[in-house]
Amino acid sequence: MPVALKTFDRLRDAAAALGSETGARYFGGGTLLVRNIVEGSVQASSMVRATERAMTEIRPAGSRFTIGAGATMAQIAAHPDLRFLAPVARAIGGPAIRNMATAGGNLFAPYPYGDFAVAMLALEATVSVQSGYSPRDVPLDEFMTSAERGNRAIVGTITFRRPDSESAFRFVKVSRTHPKGASVLTIAAHLPLSGGRLSSPRIAYGAMAPTPIRAKAVESALNGKTLDEAGIAQALAVATDGCNPQTDPFASDWYRREVLPVHLKRLLLG
Fold first, then answer.
1. Rounded to the nearest 5°, which phi and psi values hold at 125?
2. What pTM value is reported for the model?
């Protein structure tokens, strides 16, 4: 069955069209949607997209950055103010995929994908969600498990915290196929220091639950501690708290639980 592509100049018009047609799907970079339609795992009568300029812009704003949901991984990897995110963007697919894959689309990537979303969770991101004509800001950790994410909501922008320094943000993707395989697990960490001790750290995991999650037990165990063997010991003891990994062709749930503390330790000790 043919699938129509409908283009709108404004995001709100695209959101209205998406809401008015049951068989419509939002088209960002197309790396996931087009494949799923071709394979038959997703049924669609039309694809809706928006060409609003803000959708592809990357804007610094004081202590935070705002990225348009349509910005590609290639744009992010090349941006001079986002050097700390370049390893994250480059961990997603090969060059052809990075030229199409978008920041917003990655928030909807199925398990065990969504590595960029893991980084955004660690950086305290919020998303601007367009529903009809009324956009609203939602914390990303709330959005990842909300009904809106499952109901084909359109994300317009992603705003996130600028790390205190490049070394304060750390990221690792564990994969069996390098350099562009699916995740066995992913860890992102924002580790601000005050007086030599961690102050409100944020840790996020990918492929350790049905969607990317924050490791809140680890965050609590690290707060106020030093980044050394003694300081991270309690965090490693609770590393898998709240995790619910799956078994898939890349790794078993048992293996993911076993290796997570190993990679978390390496990440924290740098």
1. -75, 150
2. 0.92
Q: Do 221 and 132 share a domain, yes or no?
A: no
Q: What is the per-residue pLDDT across 221-265, written as a single tens digit (0 to 9) for each? A: 999 999 999 999 999 999 999 999 999 999 999 999 999 999 999
Same domain, 132 and 36: no
The greatest distance separating any two alpha carbons of the chain, rounded to the nearest whole angstrom, comes to 62
Residue 248 phi, psi (nearest 5): -145, -175
Final residue in a domain of this structure, among 161, 184, 209:
161
How far does the chain reach from its first CA to its final CA, in angstroms? 52
CB-based contacts of 139-146 (< 8 A; 24+ apart in sequence): 140/107, 141/213, 141/214, 143/107, 144/107, 144/117, 144/211, 144/212, 144/213, 145/211
Q: What is the CA radius of gyration of the chain?
A: 19
Among the three residues 31, 50, 69, which one is the final residue of a domain in this structure? 50
Q: What is the dihedral of CA 226, 163, 74, 72, to 10 degrees?
A: 120
Residue 244: what residue type?
Answer: N
Domain assignment of residue 233, given as a range: 166-269
Listed residue (58, 110, 47) closest to 85, CA to CA: 58
The three-state secondary structure class of 139 is strand
Same domain, 184 and 212: yes
pLDDT tens across 36-81, in order?
888 777 888 888 888 899 999 999 988 899 999 999 999 999 999 9
Nearest residue to 171 (alpha-carbon basis) of 85, 73, 51, 233:
85
CATH number at residue 206: 3.30.390.50
CATH number (domain holding residue 143):
3.30.465.10
